[in-house]
Amino acid sequence: GELVEALGDYVTYFPSYEIMVDELRDYRFYERDMIHPSPLAIDFIWNRLRRTYLCQSTDEPIADFGALANALAHRPESGATDAHVKFAGAQLRKVNELQAKYPYVELREARNHFARAAATAVAATTATADMGADVAGANADA
């Protein structure tokens, strides 16, 4: 009560709980435990919050940094491959583009992440190629 009174118009309440229990009652909006919201429910509530509080000019940065977050969460299925080297290199270029587009955002950690991923993948694919050459050479000698 006192905080709301002190801050007045600077504080509002977003009814995410009410949206969940009143509008999103269907099973598909809950995880298997039937307690936690599903990704579909989270997206629904996030989009409602965006429409309520954010102006349209935030859509592009949100999309840009959402794509970056997804790329940062990506883990290669097959370990270090040429495809992963290309992916990490492409993401590193995208991070540099984002840095140019949003110079006020610190992206050093993202840049370092993809630089390490590319270097690790290059080292692993080089080692694998060297092992293949050693095995081929050993078979030829036999």
Structure description:
The structure is a single chain. The model has no long low-confidence stretch (mean pLDDT 86). The chain has 142 residues and is mainly alpha-helical. The protein is built from six helices and no strands. The chain has helices at 2-7, 16-23, 39-53, 59-73, 82-101, 108-141. Helix content is 69%, strand content 0%. The chain is extended, with a radius of gyration of 24 Å.
TL;DR of this structure?
The protein is mostly helical. 69% of the residues lie in helices and 0% in strands.
Kindly state the number of beta strands.
Answer: 0
Number of DSSP helical runs: 6
Mean pLDDT: 86
Contiguous low-pLDDT stretches (5 residues minimum) are: none
Proportion in β-strands:
under 5%
Round the Cα radius of gyration to an integer and report it.
24 Å
Span from first to last CA? 84 Å
Helicity level, as a percent range? Answer: 55-70%
Which structural category do the helix and sheet elements fall into? mainly alpha
The arrangement of helices and strands along the chain is HHHHHH
- Oligomeric status: single chain
Overall geometric form? extended
Q: Major beta sheet, specifics? A: none
